[in-house]
Amino acid sequence: MEPEPTEPTSPYAASSPRADPAPLETFVPDAAGSDFPIQNLPYGVFVVKPDRGLSKLDAVRARVGVAIGSRVLDLSWLASEDLHVVGDRKLCEHKSPWLLDVPGAGTLTPLMRAGAKTWRAMRARLQALLALHPIPGVRNLRAPYDVTGMCLYKMEDVEMRMPCDVGDFTDFYASREHATNVGTMFRGASNALNENWAALPVGYHGRASSVVCSGTNIVRPRGQILKDASSRTTYAPTAKLDFELEVGVFVGGAGNELGVPIKIADASEHVFGYCLLNDWSARDVQRWEYVPLGPFASKSFATTISPWVVTALALEDARCAAPAQDLRKPLPYLVEDDRHALDVSLEVRVRANANANANASGGAGRRRESGETPPGGAASETASASASPSPPPPRAPVARSNLRHLYWTPAQMIAQHTSTGCNLRPGDLLGTGTISAPKGEGTPGCLLELTEDGARRVAIGDGSGATRAYLEDGDEVVITGAAVTREGVRIGFGTCVGVVLPALDE
To answer: Is 246 a known ligand-binding residue?
Structure first.
């Protein structure tokens, strides 16, 4: 049996006699005020660009890293050179199987599997390694000797890959406002919410194979579309390509055995972390195909996620009251003793004509069709996505919402998903569904709602004066998100970016 980690929950807890520990600070100069301060430390997978002159690390194509300011800390190097960094003590104070796997893994899956105690120990150790003021008796990347030049890369020198091989992807429909708005458009206000929606978190199984990393170009899909009221159809490029403002939830821990549900009280222990998620949708294809079994090809062509996974531990200060479940009392297996939401602000921006640098060969779909194998193997089956922020986003968001508005929480999603005995595995991805805001607190989270299915156009706010009913070729969609700690520290998610390319010729 693996020994339990003994690392303190705070890098200052075991060494400082002060009742109020000093605020966490790091020696990385631009971390404070960025998306990635020392209070965040999200995990990701990256490769170093080929022109950066690597030596012995050339053999490792994809590596696990942690974002700190505009730098990436190479955990694969820390694992392979561990004794040089922390004396005769392992990074987590025990021989964690995931840590031993890191140098060759190039994926977060082993860490996701390790469980909550290891996650907390890792976070404490990483904060100690990156601290501005070394803790007495605890090694630091700059003390007693400086090794930062060997394990800290500039973000501009790396490219991001998928954080893990997503085993399964399930997308939920957890926003009351989104479900009500869409139901009103399709069925009328008196029948906006189906009866089961208030009783359980509704979801459908998506395609893990088409979940791609931010920076992957999205080829406009073709599909079967209803031409007119006579039910004549055509196979054509979608004219109603949409974004969906979502958050992804990565499942962690050992998972549950087939046939054994996860109890609601234990569900939060199975949440490793969160990412931004855009579940691209072809609304005209969806309208024709979704009855009676729900979305299929209208959504399975692409789902984009941000490359950095913000841990549940980093968002503990973002806990807030969740919306009252006043439509119908949930059954006991969905009732939370510690019901809470996460206060994470979310925005979508659209830039017109952004595909000047996105040539057709960069589309993930086209590369796969040509039979080419992307660098880094399956975990990096995406277009090249720099870890650096994309160009400054358009000035005004098209959509603005918050994760706290979800009617159904991630814990309830996990409890429902496993309620019949379905087994979740580390690296599985759950999507929240489009997160729309209540009136006066933001906007809807997709163009379907914003434009009333194309009945009106909205300004995209990129300074060009352009308006949209739905996305056009060349549009770049940028999703951002951030929480704020009690001390006012920003916990950012980075960006989730995709550019729309024209449909392929038949």
So the answer is: yes
The CB density around residue 223, as the number of other CB atoms within 10 Å, is 20
Question: Is 171 marked as binding a ligand?
Answer: yes
Using pLDDT thresholds of 50, 70 and 90, give the confidence band for residue 468: very high
What would the pLDDT profile of 108-129 be if each residue is shown by its tens digit?
999 999 999 999 988 998 999 9
Q: How far apart are CA 383 and CA 216, in angstroms?
A: 5
Q: What is the pLDDT of residues 404-430, one digit of tens each?
A: 999 999 999 999 999 999 999 999 999
Q: Would you say 412 is a known binding-site residue?
A: no
Alpha helices, H only, 431-500 = 447-450
Three-class DSSP category at 500:
strand
Across the strands, what pairs with 341? 320
Say how far apart CA 26 and CA 414 lie, in whole Å.
35
DSSP state, 140?
A: B
In DSSP notation, 66-111 reads: EEETTEEEEHHHHHHTHHHHHTTS-TTSS--HHHHHHHHH-SSHHH
List of residues 6+ apart from 32 with CB closer than 8 A: 25, 26, 69
Residue keyed to tokens 């796969």? 368
Walk me through the domains of the chain, giving residue ranges and CATH numbers. 43-161 (2.30.30.230), 169-501 (3.90.850.10)
* Spatial separation of the C-alpha atoms in residues 331 and 293, rounded to whole Å: 24
Binding residue per annotation — 290?
A: yes
Alpha-carbon gap, residue 93 to 77, rounded angstroms: 17
> What is the H or E stretch that residue 159 is in?
strand 158-161
204 phi and psi angles, rounded to 5 deg: -145, 155
Confirm or deny that 153 is annotated as ligand binding: no
CA distances from 462 to 59, 96, 393, 400, 456 (A): 42, 48, 8, 15, 18
Q: Would you state the pLDDT for residue 211?
A: 98
Torsion, Cα 468 470 473 474, to 10 degrees, reads 50
**C-alpha neighbours within 13 Å on the C-beta side of residue 179:** 21
With CA atoms as reference, report the closest residue to 433 among 470, 454, 406, 397: 406
**Percentage of residues in the chain having pLDDT higher than 90:** 67
Q: Is the peptide bond before 444 cis (omega within 30 degrees of 0)?
A: no
DSSP code of 26?
Answer: B
Is residue 81 part of an annotated ligand binding site? no
Helix, strand, coil distribution of the chain in percent, nearest 5? 25, 25, 50
CA angle 109, 111, 112 (to 5 degrees): 60
- Beta bridge partners, 155, equal none
CA torsion angle for 34, 38, 44, 47 (degrees, to 10)? 80
pLDDT level of residue 2 (50, 70, 90 thresholds) = very low
Residues recognised as catalytic: 178
Q: Is the dihedral of CA 254, 12, 312, 378 positive or negative?
A: negative
Q: First-to-last CA distance in the chain? A: 57
